[in-house]
Design brief:
rod-shaped; about 30% strand; alpha+beta; single chain; 1 helix
């Protein structure tokens, strides 16, 4: 029984340490990414996703990234015009 404790305890401590290191690394990998925003233009069927000069981020800040032009106010998306982008605080 004592030999099991001598082997299992260090092994358990090693696993807990490795798991903690992985969790810390994974948490820092979810930081915001700053990207150029794209607006969706349904009137241009050949290239409906048009790049803008507005810089936005991928993490939800609660404020949509938008751009105004002659045709109105447009929400901005990633380069595929699928995922909404958010204003950089």
């Amino acid at each position: 029984m004592k030999t099991i404790r001598k082997i299992a305890l260090p092994f358990a401590i090693l696993l807990i340490g490795a798991g903690s290191a992985y969790a810390t690394n994974a948490a820092s990998a979810t930081e915001a990414v700053e990207v150029l925003g794209y607006k969706f233009d349904p009137e241009n069927p050949e290239q409906p996703c048009e790049m803008t000069t507005e810089r936005c981020e991928t993490i939800n800040t609660g404020i949509s990234c938008q751009v105004s032009d002659a045709s109105g106010v447009h929400n901005l998306y990633d380069s595929a015009c699928e995922n909404e982008l958010f204003r950089i605080p």
